[in-house]
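Why does residue order matter? Because the sequence determines the fold. Keep that principle in mind as you read this record.
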Amino acid sequence: MKKTRTRIGLAELEINNLLKKEEYKTLFKHRLLKKDSILYTDNISIVIIKNGSAKLSFFEDGDEFIIYHVLKNNITILDDSCALEFLEDSEIYSIELEDEKDIFQSFEFNKITNEALIEIILLQRKIIKSILYESAKGRIANFLIELAKEQDLKQNSYYYVFLPFSVKVLSSFVGLKRQSASTAFNELIKDDIIRKLTAHEFLIIDFNALQSYTNYNCLD
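Structure:
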């Protein structure tokens, strides 16, 4: 099955052998960051998470919007509009865009970076489309379908979804206030479109009904 770059965790890339060790040391800034550390930048930068994980987010007036999670062996872009918060102790390499001419002499690094950035752009367009054109239920439905696609699990012919965080965190992924997200989520449960098994486990009972709230088919 092809690895999919999703908002829960961008699929691991083959970055270990893209550059020589001395190239990482001379071209990149190396950092060891503790859990809950937050990385900001004034200039556009490429960040490679060698070990650990982080979330890329916008912050505005005390509200957080989570763009996506980034797992180890991944590349992401950081600029002054967002922040990278580390979910565990992590090791990273970073380089500002204006300083990266030399690394693009490596064909493989160039190829992997371009592919990763194209997929990130497409993912962000899906996020924008959902926020602009979908209701609260539509945003949550879209997110659950995306999660079902990533996890690819079934129980008694129903899609099984493990939600690895609270509805409060979910609201930060879909751009809703916590109360709005909670209300929409509970209505989906009440209508038996999704069924709650435990605090973090759900079955999608009526996939077509869930999908009807969205503006496009995430499982195409």
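Residues 15 and 112 are 8 Å apart (CA to CA).
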